[in-house]
Predict the structure.
Amino acid sequence: MVLPLLPGNSFNRNVEKKKFHKSQHWGFCNNVRMLVSEDKPGIGGELLPGQKMKPKYSDFPKGMGSTVPSWIAFDKQVLSFDAYLEDELPDKTQEKYRIRRYKILFYLEDDTIQVNEPELKNSGLPQGTSIRRHRISLPPPDEDQFYTVYHFNINIDVVFYGRTFKIYDADTFTKNFLKKIGVKLNPPGRCPEDPYMKIRRETLDRMEPLRPYESYDTLKQFLEYDRKVLRFFCLWDDSASMFGDRRKLILHYFLCDDTIEIKEVMPPCSGRVATSLFLRRKKLPKYGPPGVYQPGQITDRAVLNLYRGLTGRPADGYLLDKYKLGKVDQEFYKDSDLFIGTTINVWGRKVLLCDCDNFTKTYYKTKYGIENFTSISCKAPPPPKIERKFPPYNGFGSEEDSLRTCIGLVPTPHQRNFKKFMEKNSYGSTSNILRFFAKLITHKRVERDRMFVISYFLSDDTISVFEPIERNSGFTGGMFLKRIRVKKPGQEVFKSELPEYIQAEDLYVGARVNVNGYLFHLLNADEYTLRYMEENSDQFPMSSIELVLQKLKEEQSNSRELKQVFRNADPKLTKRVDYNTFRDIMMTLTVGRLLEHEFITLARHYGVPEDTCPDMNILMAQAHEQLKKNTFENFERLIATCVYEDREKKKVLPTKDIRRLCKSFRLPLTDDLLGCILSGFQDSEEQINYELFFSALNWRMNPMPELQAVSFSKERCEDVWLGMPSPIPVKYVDYFRLLKDVFGLVEE
């Protein structure tokens, strides 16, 4: 059986002259093709001189006994030996030699060797890799051969480049490997103690009770927290001192050495000289300024005495103060002392920590479990408002103009609310004017029937009063009060404050308003006013249907009586009554708890909608009136055009074609009027019989009676308005729906 090729196997010099007696063949050694001789018995089965049999493959550990190359079989398998070296020191007086320990690593894959010296603290020698990894030749006279695994054992000496290494032990893997390849292991030896390290250890042991060594290990903290800085946004309020103010600062806490640096945030145009740092980087004491210390008072160690040995040198050691008597204790700020809302002492200045960045929040959340990082506002509180006292009104001009003369040296006109003016000014069909019909309350019988229109302008809170002209009344009529702001009665005239004026909330149906000494009773309002007040019910509570219904719900005890009264007023069971009957019934049962405006709100909410579609006769009469004024008579031509376009001779055309023909012939009718008439003549398919349509419009062939003025019946609201009939809010009120919403009554 042939042994596999092991790197480093070479021929023995003693039997080289008789190598022709060995069988040879071509093989590979370290990836190089070369002639290899085999150690096997020669002719006759006898061993040649100087030849010995090597173990078979089965005796080798894992990786041996296969035909794969050795660098693959022994990959990542290393033998480790413990060795030492005696290094002579002729120039030293305390010791003559040094014992240096080494690790010899033998790589099985390529027979390379590496020698490492473990680092020893305070050895004073260059340590680390002593011999780099490579193949090492044997000492002379075998320098043409290299070290193999068979040259290593425990308790032997190996020579590397003239230096003798004494192997005294090996690790478990190495011992097992050597045993499996047939190497008989020597008993492990013992490494002698280094004289220098022994003397040093004795010196340290002797000095330990007299000189306690204090280790300040800051390297770990530096390596862990280097370039990690906590940032806080701070505030120094110095407004209490003369010419002081609030100053914004940024505090940097360096975690690597617990130092603090503070920078000031300079606002633009502050008037201060810009400085790079408010406080340079250093440890910040908690109780500063501490005062002035004597030289040597602030130290890390206190030396009590020096002592000499037997060598006669000036000093062999130092005796420190073990109990640290007289040491000045100084407390410095740590990261555990810095939180949002904490006030720290920066050399006598009280600095408030208001906020921090995201990294700082994450650090405190991870290390201290803090979750609340509510920031504190750095803005200065508004200064106390100084109440200005103005002299009272003197009677010249308006109160606003007199007040402007007291505010500035140069009087300026009173500035009105421009934003309100732009929002509430009249535009388009929106007037933003509340109009109420009122009568004058007076003891003079002649003036009792005078009616007025009070207009309230929402854009500037002004009021105008107009009296309608009535013939043979004895009064001129017209503008009664021009548009001005009206003061509320009962106010002191000569006072420092501005007077109160009548607001829109003070006007509602049924209210009594004093306008410059004239007392008016508001009887009704126009449609726009009532709708505006209902849309803004939060400003006008009398127009809020919810509040009115809440008042009615308080009359729960009168629900059956109220239902019986409404049933008696509605003998035909139509579930509705006219407005006057509804007002009388509700006024009788509520006994003055509801105002007149609240009655109108109820009636408008539960009113029965009227049919707003005009009669076709009225529409045709209006159309004839317009056609007669413009002398339009092209009806025959219109019919002829329609006949021409009626290809199927059905005598009907679509509504859009009829409208187009009317526009093309310039029919003098408005779009709304024409649309209403067309909708009355069209059928379900939106087609119109053009002969009937234009024949009806022919005012000469089919004349219509002239329109008569509508005579409104004088309905009673509060009193009868002479010359001005007052239209009621609604004609009929659905009382059953009201009773159902308020009292929950159901139909029987």
